[in-house]
Structure formats: structure tokens, C-alpha cells
Amino acid sequence: MTGFVPDMAFENSGATRLPPTQRLNILADFAEYVVTGDGLQQVFTEAVGIFSRVFQAECIIACELRSDGQKFYLQSKAVDPGKSFSMDGNTLRRYIMDFLVRDVMVFGEENTVPLGLASAITGNSTLTSGVSVTIPGHNHPWGMLLVCDDINRAYSDDDIYFIRAISNLLATAFERTRVDQDRQINIRSVIRAKKQWESTVDALSGVVCLIDKKGRVLRANRSLEEWGICKIVDIGRKDLHRVLHPGCKDRKCSFKKAWNLSFSRIEQENVDWEIADQVLNRYLHLSLKKLSAEVDSEIGKDDRYAVLYIEDISVRHSENEALEKYQHDLEAEVKQSRSQLINVEEPLVQQLALLTELNDIDAMVSKTRKYSYLVDDTLTGVYVLKDGEVIFCNARLAKIFKYEREEMCGMRIEDLISRRTGH
User: Fold this and answer.
1) pLDDT of residue 345
2) Could you say which architecture CATH assigns to the domain 3-182?
3) At the topology level of CATH, where does 205-312 sit?
4) Which residues make Cβ contacts (< 8 Å) with residue 9, sequence separation at least 6?
5) How close are the terminal C-alpha atoms of the chain, in Å?
6) What's the pTM value of the predicted model, to 2 decimals?
7) What pLDDT, on a 0 to 100 scale, did the predictor assign at position 84?
8) Beta strand pairing status for 389-393 and 282-290?
């Protein structure tokens, strides 16, 4: 982007100085142009034109120092048409950096060192005087202005002040351009972030709604359309119940009652609830959350009051119901099995008790037999009485009284002795 001021037939030797009031008028007009001008190059071209009219200099150059502090860009220039202007970037950068060391540099007969730099930059080896002024910036100069002549010319303080005033206005143009560029970048970033956020919200399977203080829907994501409820453009700040249940006239609508109750509680707490919606034929989980004051301060206050997320949990609810039914059926089966086990257990316990008793009887019989063997082997009669009657006797005693052992059981021992002795 380079602008050229056409050949203006500079008459250096006959140049006359403009009065201060006229220069102030030029500065005022240029300041207005900086604000209203269309683009940085046009502003620079206008600045070079002003220098041409005021100083009628041989060569005028305006250079921009790029933001990295290294590259230079020629915004506009006015030179003798017969002179060339060509230089590789590194050399141009080195020469211009030498001028940027000082804010203002006046050169001529008393200071000839900068003449070589100016001649190298402009390609004019006949230059004898000139002024360089930096365009001030925050971290580094925005650029440089160079006004040169091929005749010895003394630049007064007023001349230098005028050039510096133009450079300050150019700095304002840079700042304005930078602000505009930053604003455009920010706008593009906001638009990109907005689109990314909208695409993210639209990717959610549930319905997301922004709600105002009156319970009306301000915005919603695309799930509202995917659920077949309504078009996004048809929301029109309608009450949530009207959006989800268009044309509903049921005064006892369970969704409307649940929504009104939940919305009335939002000032105190976030609200979550579930409901079987007969109109949408879905089992819904709703989560209502009030937007914080921090969000309002960051994005600016508007009608946004709360955010509502509606999730379709019909499948999950059906699975939970199936799981609960399975658990209920399983518990019933376990209870029935336990009852059956109890019915089987009682006979088993009885049989076990009988077997235990039989085992005890067998043990007793075994012990009795062992005792009988021991008693029967003795040479004396042995008997056991109960209430004076024989309940047990050994074979020896039965033999003494000449009875069978079984016959003696139940007999009184006195009767046996009387029969034996005859008394």
C-alpha cells in the first residue's frame, strides 16, 4: 500500500513561510481529516501533501515501523520524478533506525552526518539539509517523517514544531487504526465464540432455554426443533408452558403447575424435578438455575434471568422401572423359595430328631446289654426293685427262684422269699 504525491514543481529557493495562523488552520483541518479519513495511507498521503505545500521540499518521506519493531513500510513519498527510490530491506531498516535514535534530528552544514543517511534513503545525493521526526508510539515509534532539500535551508523552531504536530496527529491516526483493527478482531472473536457456543449448545440432546423474570423464553437451542415442538423463530418471548404445550387449555395441567412452583422457588435455590409429560409423550428431567450477578456484570444486563435445561430421560426411566419390577419379582421369588424351604425344613427337623432319639435308644440298649452281660456272669442273684416290685433281675436270681427272668418282673421280692422258704 503505497501512495505518491504527484510532481508539484517544487520552488525551493522562492519558498515563503506561511503565517502561524494559517499553519494552525492547516493543523486543525488535518486533525479533522485524521478522524474522518478513510484509511491510514490516505492520511499519510495528505500529510505529505501538507509538507509539500508548506515547505516545498525536494523530498518528503513517511515510513511506518511495523509492530515487530523491525520491518518498515513506505506509506507515502514525494520525490523528484527523476530520482529513484530503491533499497533492500536490511539497508533501509539500518538507515531508518539511525534516524529513530532521536525524536528530532536537524541536519545541514553544521550536522552533515545524517545527510548520507537521507541521501541513501531517498536516492538523492544532492541533499544538503533536512529534518527527521519520529512518529511517537507507546512501546516503539510508529514510524518516521523525513523532509529534505537540495539547498541549504535553515529549519526554524516553528518549522520543527509544525512537523512534530503533524507527527503527533499521525500517531493518533495509528492509534485509531490500531483500535479499529483491535475492535474488528474482537468483533470477529466474539462472533466466532458466539457461533462456537451456539454450535456447542445446539449439539446438546436436551433443550436449553434462556428465561426472563416473567418466565418467558428468550432463546432456545435447536433441540426445540429436533423434538418437533416448534421453530426457534416462533418462540417470541412466550411463556415456557405455551412454548412446550401450544394450545393447552387444561387448567389442571401437571407441567404448568410444576413449572410455576419451580419458577417461584428460583430466588432461593436451584430447582430440579422430573415429570411425565403427556403432551410431549416424554419423561423429562428439568434443571432450573438462576444466572449469577457476575454473569450480568460481564455481559451487560439484559432480560436474561435464568437458564433451563430439559433432558429427555424416557429411556432411562423405562429402564429404571424395568429394574424395579425385576427387583420386586426377585424379592417375591426369594420369599416364596424361603417359604418352601421352611415347609421342607420342618419334616427334616422331625426326622433328624427321631434319628437322634433312635441313636440315643440304640446307645442305651447297647449299654444295657453290656450291663446285662456283666450282671449275668456273676454267681449271685442281682435284682432291682421299684416300689417293692422287681423290675430287673439277672439270670442267676431267676435260677435261684426257679422262674424265668420275664416272669419275675413285677413280682414282689417278699413273695418270692416266702415261696422259697415255705412261710
Assistant:
1) 62
2) 2-Layer Sandwich (3.30)
3) Beta-Lactamase (3.30.450)
4) none
5) 165
6) 0.48
7) 44
8) unpaired
